[in-house]
């Protein structure tokens, strides 16, 4: 890919966005962030009430990007082998033999629907896949296809019969996106697209697996100035109550973001810069990516819950100081 | 210096517009930093002036303007140095340019120098385009901190206002400054004199070994140094007096004053010795020796000489263990035995005759001493107008004048350190001053009935004393005397012989002792007691 092709990234990115927006209305920012996470090679946890188009969104992405797609509906009785796959006895010409039957995880794009409904044991089956991009069954380790990313959804309302994702697993998600109710205007548009139309909108395939890998490679080369990195590090450190002088952090935060969160911020900032038509990541990109990349990595205390202070409020304060 | 290379590894052109733009911004920032430092130092200087102005009302600050000017120079230099040292780096300049809407492009551009890749190539092209469209170097406007300048201006205005408020300390400082100026000028004169003495090849300035005598010039240099550091005429006069003493004790083989002191030993010895006496009074010890060499002394004359020797022993300055001392002892022994003759006296008197080279040295020293004497008188005269005595009494001026000015209000005996020579043997003059020693016209302010005659102070045993608490402690009630006219008469002896020095000291001690007796004897309010004590201890400079 030449430098002139690199300049086309913005067109590609906007094309994909528009294509997904044909199907998903009123979630432009979410679509953009999911695409950023895909290009950056990270997984996304989407949190929102039922019926906001989470599953449709993921399915649409799979179609536009022409990537192998699997959907796993997490339930309390779901077992790890139901995700990873297992060895089965297969009869062949040479006789009976154990053969590995791949689970739904062996796909490029995984929709982990209502991930918080599965037991921690099952949830943990996702850990290795999301971080190492491998699956170990028995004594054998299997490499997952590249690109690989998990788009998980969770419902914050129905807490009964759910298992809160452990911090270790939350940290594996590059972004956590909060899907909110679209605006009234967008709801009308949703009705236009979904109810009033007799046919589903035509979704074009705009990229393939190789394109995604190439873009991932280019995104990693986007330069980030040392001053921007410095600010990003400060941003991360400021989320820690013992490393900041911000009273809001000291008051409401139990534990701050990890270096993995910082990596996620910078990776996202690089892709965002490309999407904006720039070839370097600025602090503006870092600031924009700080919310989805750090909000699930800042662990708030009970006081914060009681006073309805969320991680975004904390990040607002930190960014105000760093700017 | 960092070598800037492009993606191909070749050095980037110096004309790389991005680098040039950053360089230009950097220089602008540097000038801005220098200006900023200068403004900062101006602000600090303004505070310095303010503090000085405020302090000038509390303590006497001499050379205020010079100090302010020196402060300005120091602060300006420090500000300039700080500004020069605050030269921004390329990264700093790039960051400033980035803040103009370049989204961290320029700082990233600097970091990507020497690296290659499709994305980086596209990035460089993009940055070049951006810089061409919007040249940050042209758009960058260094900002001067007007707020600081205003602060500076306001502080200076306030300082000027403070300086315009009259204050006794400021007046005192002005006086002190004037004193120092005068003293410096006098010190310069002394140095010139010392230099002349040093440079002279004349035999007059050679010691007995024929080497240039540096003692005299060293004395003068030391005095000049002391005078430069001195802040009062009185102190300077005291220093001059001390130097004169040192000069007097300087051995030049003979001593005219010593010879003069010997004149008294012939008192009552008979007419045969009048010529020797006169010659001694003129300082001619050699002539006196010749005059007595062939004279015979009667038994009575020998006894008189013996008595006179004992009487004037204090005035005759002799080197310990020297020939003169031995001869004096010999004379005393001979006189006791009745064997004293003119030859022995002549050999004794010859000890006060200087050798040829020493004679010229002495005249040189006398010349210096004359100059020092006139210098001291000048200083004391200046002290009279520039130094305020205790309780606003300008007593030193009266003393300087030798207390002989008619109508001088503050005539009092000078301190022993300076009065001895300053008065030059004039002695105490009666004054019609109300506060003079003796001859007071107003009884309640005069000093206890001293009769100001011819350098003598006579304390009356029953001098009236003030009621405790009514009068100021220094205002000792005295006896009224009509007239208060100056009785000026030069003593034919006191003016000439050094013995007057002792008298002045004695006078002072008497006066001081009387003052202290008064302090001890009478009830003085506790609050004013230290004041009284201080008055007597500081009388005439506390000497």
Quick structural summary:
The complex is a heterodimer of chains A (323) and B (543). By secondary structure, chain A is α/β, with parallel strands linked by helices. Chain A contains 15 helices and 11 strands.
Count of helix runs of chain B: 21
Query: What's the CATH first level of the largest domain in chain A?
Result: Alpha Beta
Strand content of chain A: 15-25%
Shape descriptor of chain B reads elongated
Estimate nothing, just give the exact number of structural domains of chain A. Answer: 2
- CATH architecture type of the largest domain in chain A: 3-Layer(aba) Sandwich
The CATH H-level superfamily of the largest domain in chain A is P-loop containing nucleotide triphosphate hydrolases
Q: In sequence order, what are the helices and strands of chain B, one letter per element? A: HHHHHHHHHHHHHHHHHHHHH
Order of helices and strands of chain A: HHHEHEHEEEHEEEHEHHHHEHHEHH
The count of DSSP E runs of length 2 or more, i.e. the number of strands of chain B, is: 0
Q: DSSP strand (E) fraction of chain B?
A: under 5%
N-to-C CA distance of chain B: 71 Å
- The number of E-state strands of chain A comes to 11
The overall average pLDDT of chain A, rounded, is 90
Number of domains of chain B: 4
Q: State the helix count of chain A.
A: 15
On the 0 to 100 scale, the average pLDDT of chain B is: 71
